[in-house]
Amino acid sequence: MIVCGEKKRPGGKLVKVCLNVEDGIVKGVLITGDFFVDPGEEFEKIIERLERIEVPIEYIEEEIRNAFMELNDRIFGIGIEEIIEATRKALNELNK
User: Fold this and answer.
1) Alpha helices (runs of H) in the chain, residue ranges in sequence order
2) How far is Cα 72 from Cα 79, in angstroms, rounded to an integer?
């Protein structure tokens, strides 16, 4: 099942997280929005790290924090908390 969540940062910046979840495991991740990462290849590595994580939000939050801390000074337009909040909203869609 594919679920998506969005978070708009004060000032207008938006991040959207879509997760493909099968049998309680994240099989695919797409993070889009009003931001950029330099270098972009590092962002792709982080997306790969987030795939195959078990669904409880605590696991995903921890992995997002760990992965994005490495990019914290190279991601522009959004922050880690916005990504986590958009991910929470996406996962809430699983319970509907």
Assistant:
1) 40-50, 57-69, 80-92
2) 8
> Do residues 29 and 50 touch, judged by C-beta distance below 8 A?
yes
Query: In the chain, what are the domains?
Result: 2-95 (3.30.390.50)
Quick one: which of 7, 54, 2 has its CA closest to 28?
2
Distance, in Å, from the CA atom of 88 to the CA atom of 92, rounded to the nearest integer, reads 6
10-67: pLDDT as tens digits:
887 999 999 999 998 999 999 999 988 888 888 888 888 888 888 787 888 888 888 8
Separation between Cα atoms, residue 42 and residue 7, nearest integer Å: 22
pTM of the model: 0.88
- β partners of residue 26: 21
- The rounded distance, in Å, linking the Cα atoms of 55 and 63 is 11
* 22 DSSP assignment: E
Is the Cβ–Cβ distance between 91 and 3 less than 8 Å?
A: yes
